[in-house]
Amino acid sequence: xxxxxxxxxxxxxxxxxxxxxxxxxxxxxxxxxxxxxxxxxxxxxxxxxxxxxxxxxxxxxxxxxxxxxxxxxxxxxxxxxxxxxxxxxxxxxxxxxxxxxxxxxxxxxxxxxxxxxxxxxxxxxxxxxxxxxxxxxxxxxxxxxxxxxxxxxxxxxxxxxxxxxxxxxxxxxxxxxxxxxxxxxxxxxxxxxxxxxxxxxxxxxxxxxxxxxxxxxxxxxxxxxxxxxxxxxxxxxxxxxxxxxxxxxxxxxxxxxxxxxxxxxxxxxxxxxxxxxxxxxxxxxxxxxxxxxxxxxxxxxxxxxxxxxxxxxxxxxxxxxxxxxxxxxxxxxxxxxxxxxxxxxxxxxxxxxxxxxxxxxxxxxxxxxxxxxxxxxxxxxxxxxxxxxxxxxxxxxxxxxxxxxxxxxxxxxxxxxxxxxxxxxxxxxxxxxxxxxxxxxxxxxxxxxxxxxxxxxxxxxxxxxxxxxxxxxxxxxxxxxxxxxxxxxxxxxxxxxxxxxxxxxxxxxxxxxxxxxxxxxxxxxxxxxxxxxxxxxxxxxxxxxxxxxxxxxxxxxxxxxxxxxxxxxxxxxxxxxxxxxxxxxxxxxxxxxxxxxxxxxxxxxxxxxxxxxxxxxxxxxxxxxxxxxxxxxxxxxxxxxxxxxxxxxxxxxxxxxxxxxxxxxxxxxxxxxxxxxxxxxxxxxxxxxxxxxxxxxxxxxxxxxxxxxxxxxxxxxxxxxxxxxxxx
Amino acid sequence: xxxxxxxxxxxxxxxxxxxxxxxxxxxxxxxxxxxxxxxxxxxxxxxxxxxxxxxxxxxx
Lengths: 728, 60
Known about the structure:
Helix content of chain A: 40-55%
Strand content of chain B: under 5%
Distance between the termini of chain B: 56 Å
Number of helices of chain A: 25
Shape of chain B: elongated
Subcellular location (chain A): Cell membrane; Membrane
Strand order of the largest sheet of chain A: 1-8-7-9-15-10-13
Structural class of chain A: alpha+beta
Mean pLDDT of chain B: 74
Low-confidence stretches of chain B: 49-60
CATH superfamily of the largest domain in chain A: HAD superfamily/HAD-like
CATH architecture of the largest domain in chain A: 3-Layer(aba) Sandwich
Largest interface: A-B, 26 and 24 residues
Largest sheet of chain A: 7 strands, mixed
Number of strands of chain B: 0
Radius of gyration of chain B: 21 Å
Transmembrane segments (chain A): 102-125, 137-158, 170-192, 198-216, 354-375, 381-403, 677-694, 700-718
Shape of chain A: elongated
Domain HMA (chain A): 19-85
Keywords (chain A): ATP-binding, Cell membrane, Membrane, Metal-binding, Nucleotide-binding, Translocase, Transmembrane, Transmembrane helix
Low-confidence stretches of chain A: none
Strand content of chain A: 15-25%
Distance between the termini of chain A: 56 Å
Helix content of chain B: 40-55%
CATH topology of the largest domain in chain A: Rossmann fold
Oligomer: heterodimer
GO biological process, one term (chain A): metal ion transport
């Protein structure tokens, strides 16, 4: 059979007549890699552009259309030592990039405006001997700069406030807009009346500080999404599709349609839902059901995306690919659970819900109070505006995004990616963590448990022989032996094992029957029914290796550390009882349930929530996705299925469980800093508002107070970078 | 004080030039990859130096 690779699905033809391809590249970590990749690819004739983006670890390639195949670039990168995979930037991601550029433009304009208005304001404040004509001239210049700048830079706030008002609700942007518009409008009136003070500087500076907050918020989400998108692309599976009766082509899953026939070889993860039409094998469904025992697959059997083909080669007729691969029930449960969760109210929203009416009422009462006291309309309104400006939620707007950004950066370094900013708030509140077992507490790959029972030399040979096979158990042996050089002339016997000749002796690796080691295998299985066995023979001498899913190396420590922080830990698994009992005992978890369905998992989490518990669910399988959505906050390892990763609020990288602990610690620290920041903002108002109410606020005081409170909040947010060291 | 009439607008125009520069740099993607850009400055692009170029002096 002829195998080709077809990634043309990802190539875009640009208007300028060149072909463009985006690649997610693994292992680009420094400038050296960047130079190596760019030189290596630019050396290919007809490549017009090869540029690495070191921030989001991506490579853009452009070339003359028609002369080069995308697979060539991937091969070239593999030669250079980098694994790459083409991907389509998500539409959401592109929109976020646009949005953050827009915010940066607004910020630039606002910063220009505030600097120059300040330059004009300071002489007015300082110049007691300034002539009224000069002062008017300066005020008019300020208006000339501030009004257009505010009109442009205020767009994000005006739009959002308008949307809120049209939906008959109030968000934090409403008082911001009212404050800014009133301040600017009043300043124009004052300028016309040759008054001593205007508020142009306060209005535009307010916008500048708030835009910093917005931009930080946006940047955090954008970066997480870009990195998560890369990892998803690198994990993205391809399918081997029949394009002719005897011709197969490796294509991205996005290019597979229902009705196509795909080839599923041993050791490959199935990428589609479909029916087996030819072949015989065993399927590992642990990611779907949590069950570690394999099921038999033969003609007519349904296979699902996310399952692993263990032993034979199958031909599968696709019933659903890409979008539609999931079981209808799981999707339905998922949507339901997600809807239920959307009622969560973010801290910022809660704060602004209180804040907006309070600010407006204070300003209104101040004005009425002064009127009652006998002040003129003009003076009363000026003082009310001063109150509005000085209370404007400048510090409040920064309080939360600044902490989120710093905490997200710290969590990123600890191996945790955030899917949303409010995940921090929800993770900080939890008092219960529910773990799935398979793939979450255990590593996704199998591991050899009795490597010590055979000699190093034998183990090495077994590992080298195993390199020739795609079988997951063989892959585990090869990995455990750290084998590098495969043996020559290895013959694979489907469903049985592999054999090769070395120095005139026959080596075999495969099922116990294939190697004549049934007795030893029986003994091992008798002692521990959990393991899978693989036999190795050299001539007449034979050994049996036991393979099982191993717990993450620091699982017990991490769970103990979580419990020491007062968090209840539970284990819910679709796997059989003995396996779950064993894991729970090893980890010191007293509450566990085995052999339960996705619906049971949701029911259990709902029950915990009804008891008033705040639950974090950590899981990786498709069967966990609805439970992930139902929990207060959810976390998945990066090895999880696409659906789980998309549902999870937090995604963790690496082999260890420590990031779960880090997520909790950093979230708690960040949450306490957010609260502190809100209190700082409140404290500032308690000091500043009375001064404004009694009418003592000059523009100088307003500007100083506002910048001071914002800086205080920013500096406090920096502390989110460090937490007390995690694991004991 | 008459000098202000010249100096102040001049300051504003300079500020405006700065702003335009910022907008231009944003539009041409100068902020897309801040980490990479920092490193690009110190690449030794030796192979792009023509053969005839004099060898660099050893300052070590």
